Each structure stands twice: as C-alpha cells, then as structure tokens.
Amino acid sequence: MRRLALSALLASTALGCGPAAHTRAAGAVSPLAVRAVTWNPAKAPVGNVSAVAESGDVVAVFSDRGATVLTARAPVATDASVKDWVGAGALAGADGASSWILGVGANGHVYHLRGLSSFEDVTDRYGLGGARVLGAASLGGKYSGFLLAGQIAIADGTRVALYANAGVTFEELAGGALFGALVRPTGVQVFDVTRGGLTDYPLPGVTHAAVGANGRLYATTRRAVYVGDAGGQLSLVYDATNETIHGLVVSGSQVWFADGDELGVVDGDHVAETSGAKIARDAKLSSSPSGDVWVLSGGSIDRFARAENAVTTDTTWTSAISPIFARSCSSCHRPGGVSGTDLSTAQAWEGERAEIRQRVVDRKSMPPQGHPLSDEDRGAIERWLEGAPSPIPALTHL
Question: 327-365 burial, b if ≥16 CB within 10 A, otherwise e?
Fold first, then answer.
C-alpha cells in the first residue's frame, strides 16, 4: 500500500457559496435501506454485551454473564469463567490453519472458544507471554495481530514477531488483506504484513481505521469519512458537517460507519446513509463476515443488513413460497413451533434470507431428514431469494 496524502479539505475551509461538497446538502449521500436481522430467535439471555465475534454459523456474545455461544442461531453454551471482556474477533488460530473465535479479557489475556462450549486461555500459545493484550484483529490469511501496551505482536502460527511502538500510543488496531492499520491521535500507520515497512498517513483527530478486502484503507474523524483511492491517496468522501461519526468497520465486502443515529456504508467513492435507523449515538460497530453489521450500545446488541432494490412482495411469497412452507416447513416453523423460529410469513422470510440461503440452498441441511424438499421446490426458494429484500421502515431492538 502506498503512502496516502489528504487530497480534500473539509467544508469549513471551502470557498464559495452553496453547500460544501461531500455533504448531504450537496446531494453526495444516497439513500440506504437496512433491515433488522434475527440472530437470537429464542431470545436467550446474553447479559450486558461488550463484544461479539462470529465464524461460520457460530456466534459468541461476550458480556457480564460470561460468553454465550450460539450455533445456527440457537444457544448451545454459556461459559461464565470470564465476565469482563474488552474485545473479540475471529482470527487465524495459533496453529496458523483454522479460524478461531477469540475474546480479550480485561486482564489482558486472550481466550479461545473450544468445542462450542468453553473458552481456554491461549495467551501463551500465541507467544505473547506475560504481555498485556489490549486488542486483537485478523490481518488476513494466517496472520493475527495483537495490540499490546507499548508493542505490536504479529503471529503466523509458527512464530510471533514483536514491534516496539517507539513511544507512540496506538488506540486501535484493524486489519485485513495482509495489512494492519494502527490508529493514533495524529493519523494512521499502515504496515504490510508480508513485505514489512510502516507508512504514516497523517489525519489529525482520526478516530477509526479499517482495511477492505482489497487492501483499501478507510478512516474516520468525528466529522468525516476518508477512503484511499487507486492512486494511493486518502480522499474525503463524506463530511457530516458536525462531529457525529462514531464507528467504522469492514464486514465482508461492506464498509459500515455510524453517523449520529444513522448507519452508513461506503460504496466506492461515495456513501449511502439511512434515514430513521435510530441507533444509539454512542453505539459501537462490530463486523460480520456475512456483510451484516453488529451494533452494540448500553449492553444491548442488534444486527442489521442492507436491504436495497426491493422487488419481493408479500404476494410473490404467498404464491411461490407459501405452498412449499406448508408442505415442508410448517411442522417446525409455524408460530410456537419446536424450532423456535416462526417462518410463516413473508416478512419472517425476509428477515432470514441469509440463513435460509445458507442452510436450504447452499448446504442443503434444511429441512431435516423426514421432511422432504424436492429439487423443484428448492429451486423455487432459490429464485425467490434472488429478489432483493424489502426494506423495513421501523428498526427496533431485538
């Protein structure tokens, strides 16, 4: 990644009349529709949540109750051995091969989800010894990064390399595509995991940084969103005009940010933003490999997905899917059914699109044995899923 230089000034320095560029008033923001995603249909208690991580269909929720593990959206275990968590993520395992769900405790130790039931202290397995871990991030491939007090550690499953901060205090570590991004008050430092080298990207007041799947750098201040272009420059793409931006994460191919009580995404060199999402103004964002975004605030946790270009209607579901539901799904997924997930309406299917695609179309693990589903019916479900989901105007906490 080449050195990034600021190529745009904020609206406060712009000359001339009319709304400044890159603002909502200037027409630089497109509409964004999102929908709430049901991730805990049984409403299992998870406590006051401080972090969340997922890998495949496994989700671990970290709270003052401990760590609650869900698989296929059903709770399977709670480990109460640690109850004060400061972070979590899905990183390359200490063996350098598998993906591990990790939690970082307030004691500076790193814990690994083992067997979907309990968490074990793996601080030593990552070669971190007595170091105090402040944060962790996947750097892509077999590489995991750890933010320490006074050092950065990079583990590759074989060895761990430690780099001194040289007196610089880093506030956040993000990574991806074999790059790491370190946030400090005066800017972002980006390092290439495989080739080495550290590059400074000055951005006074920077609050968050993220690295896209293609190695592109994203950064925010309390007021603005910046993105690295193909020429290697950091350019302003959104000016909120007020200090309202409070989150930034990369989730799969999506780049999410929080602006006041709205959610936004960066699409190339422009942004789209909701109107009426009503998230908390102190919310913290957490990534999902599915492209969804987790929103954490005040101990609560919600999950949202993009829901644009709506074409699916209740009428389409009623004619194409409802008969299939009656034949193959209703015995378990009717209201009050044994599955705990009601799929008896079009809106319910809209909220479970990703899960239905994964389990019915891709893995073919649903419906379970004894509830046959013909290839023709499975194909009809796949065709229905190809339609974009309908936006849900009112977003509520789950």
Answer: ebbeebbeeeeebebebbebebbbbbbbbbebbbeeeee
Cβ neighbours of residue 147 closer than 8 Å, sequence gap 6 or more:
133, 134, 135, 136, 137, 170, 172, 173, 182
- pLDDT at site 166: 67
Q: Can you tell me the mean pLDDT for 16-30?
A: 72
Closest CA to 371 of 359, 362, 383, 382: 359
How many Cα atoms occupy the beta-carbon half-sphere of 302 within 13 Å?
A: 19
Of 102, 114, 117, 186, residue with least CA distance to 147: 102
Domains of the chain: 11-306 (2.130.10.10), 314-386 (no CATH)
277, amino acid identity: A
Q: Work out the mean pLDDT of the chain and round it to a whole number.
A: 85
Contact partners, residue 182, CB within 8 Å, separation at least 6: 147, 152, 170, 172, 173, 188, 189, 190, 191, 209
Under 8 Å between Cβ of 306 and 291? yes
Q: How far apart are CA 366 and CA 329, in angstroms?
A: 9
- Pair 223, 24: CB distance under 8 Å: no
Strands 29-31 and 270-273: parallel
Nearest to 240 by CA among 221, 254, 255, 227: 221
DSSP state of 350: H
Question: Which residue reads 């309390």 in tokens?
Answer: 222
Please give the Cα distance from 337 to 335 (Å, whole number).
5
pLDDT at 61 over 70: yes
- Report the distance separating Cα 212 and Cα 190, nearest Å: 13
The b-or-e profile of 127-148 (16+ CB within 10 A means b, else e) is bbeebebbbbbbbbebbbbbbb
For the stretch 84-119, pLDDT in tens is 999 999 999 998 778 899 999 999 999 999 989 999
Extended beta strands in 149-244, E state: 151-155, 160-164, 172-176, 179-184, 187-192, 198-202, 206-211, 217-221, 224-228, 234-239
- Percent of the chain scored above 70 by pLDDT? 88
Considering only CA atoms, which of 115, 146, 114, 112 is closest in space to residue 132? Answer: 146
Q: Is the link from the previous residue into 393 a cis peptide, with omega within 30 of 0?
A: no
Q: Cα Rg for the chain, rounded, in angstroms? A: 22
Question: At 308, is the pLDDT very low, low, confident or very high (cuts 50, 70, 90)?
Answer: low
